[in-house]
Structure formats: structure tokens, C-alpha cells
Amino acid sequence: MGKFVVKKTDAGYSFNLVAGNNEIIATSEVYTSEGACLKGIQSVSKNAPIANFEDQTGDSVETAVNPKFEMFIDKAGEFRFRLKARNGEIIAASEGYKAKAGCLNGIESVRKNAVEAEIEKTY
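and the corresponding C-alpha cells:
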């Protein structure tokens, strides 16, 4: 089972969604308060399992409605995904993957791990 690891930095609070094997599968933005960060975690837990999927890596993109996972290719040529909430805000983002299959596996891992993940505070 996964967990959300919340950390405090000079800029604010952020979280990583970590899979059972301790791999980071998604990262949040930096929030100005702990409360906002915890709301971000709730949003990921609620939206990840029901999120639509939009593949932006091909020639023709079929736009999906929010909440959704968007898969895209970054400037380095790696596959990445971001999870958008109903309001269109990005609530989690991935690392870069060399292969499309790895990115798709990352999305499925977020869907599974976000639902009942515990919250661990590191401060």
C-alpha cells in the first residue's frame, strides 16, 4: 500500500505519493500551508481513481474532461504525466519515464496507491 509523505521546506509544504516499494510515483506543487497541502492529498485520493486519460503523445489528441491524467513528452524526450482536478489545477505530477509503458504503469500505480494511502509527516 502507498503513502503520502508530507515535507516542509522553506517555501512551504509538499507531498510525494510513494508506492509500497518506496518508489516516488507522483509529486505535488509547493503549498503555502499545511492545511492546503492536506487538501491537495485529499484531492489526489478522490480524483485519481476516477480520472479520465488524455494521451498527448500522438499526432491527434482526444481531449478528456477533468479530472484527468495527461500523458505528454517533456523537453528531454521523456514521458510524463500530470493529474488535474475537476477545476483544471495540477494536483500531482510524475518523474520522467524513458518508455511510454513505464509512464502508463505510473498512472495505474497512482490510481491504486492514492485511495487508501496513509499520510506520513516528516517534520
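(Above: one complete record from the training split.) The helical segments are 34-47, 100-113.
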